[in-house]
Amino acid sequence: MNLLAFMMGNVVILKIKRMLKWLTFLAFSLLSFSLYSQQVNFHNSTGKLKPVSGFTIYSDCAVDMNGDHLDDVVRTGNEVIYIDFQQLDGTFTQRYFNIVAHSLPSWSICAGDIDNNGFNDLLFADSASVSFVKASDNGSFYTETVMPGNIFSQRSTMADIDNNGWLDGFVCNDNDLSALIETMELETCRLTRTSS
Ligand SMILES: [Ca+2]
Ligand SMILES: [Ca+2]
Ligand SMILES: [Ca+2]
Q1: How far is the CA of 36 from the centre of ligand 3 (A)?
Q2: pLDDT per residue over 56-76, tens digit each?
Q3: Ligand 1 center–CA 98 separation, angstroms
Q4: N or C: which end of the chain has fewer CB within 10 A?
């Protein structure tokens, strides 16, 4: 190999290294732009919801209540469940459901389909009691079932804790051990206390 060929080879290698650096820089730039463009911005859209009467803090949740895959907004007040159903265009249409509730969820509310009928149900909890508010088979009305025992709820959630296919309720108790409410069917709910 003569000197000229040796120098030409080094020039080619140098150009390839520079090209790889540039391609690496370009790839990182595109990745950064992609990640930045995926950031979600939040806007206060309270004005989309109709006002409700008697609403108290903690008694609201956002969940799809009618099975159309659009999240709705649930609020309670004055023995009424207000549901603002989200529409395809992002607006909301409010309906209200009268319910003679033992207690409204002044401390905690959560939602889940406890009887697997396709309509989410609600768990109400206040400073003394816990109840399930079950949607009818067509979602046109709700019925409350009060659980036994005195529970000062802080917060609650639902999950199928024992993997039997039925959601269970878990309620944090401010005055005693937390409560696990196993749900085989709503009518056969049984209250089981667990450790906090
Ligand atoms: Ca919905
Ligand atoms: Ca249900
Ligand atoms: Ca279960």
Answers
A1: 40
A2: 888 999 999 999 999 999 999
A3: 19
A4: N
| Inter-CA distances, 49 with 41, 66, 83, 87, Å | 20, 17, 10, 12
Cα of 170 vs centre of ligand 2, distance in Å, is: 17
Q: Whole-angstrom Cα distance, residue 169 to residue 155?
A: 11
Q: Would you give the DSSP letter of residue 100?
A: -
Mean pLDDT of successive 10-residue stretches along the chain, which has 196 residues: 63 80 82 74 91 87 96 92 97 94 89 94 94 93 90 93 90 89 75 69
CA–CA dist 144, 71 (Å, integer)? 22
The Cβ of residue 16 has, within 10 Å, a number of other Cβ atoms equal to 10
Take residue 79 and report the two structure tokens written for it: 């023995």
pLDDT at 118: 93
Q: Is the dihedral of CA 184, 185, 190, 192 positive or negative?
A: positive
Which DSSP string do the residues of 49-92 spell out, in sequence order? SPP-SSEEEEEEEEE-SSSSSS-EEEEEETTEEEEEEEPTTS-E
Distance in Å, CA 64 to ligand 1 centroid? 4
**Which of 97, 130, 96 minimizes the C-alpha distance to 114?**
130
pLDDT at 191: 77
170, β-bridge pairs: 157, 180
pTM (2 decimals)?
0.77
| Closest-CA residue to 55 (of 85, 79, 72, 75) | 75
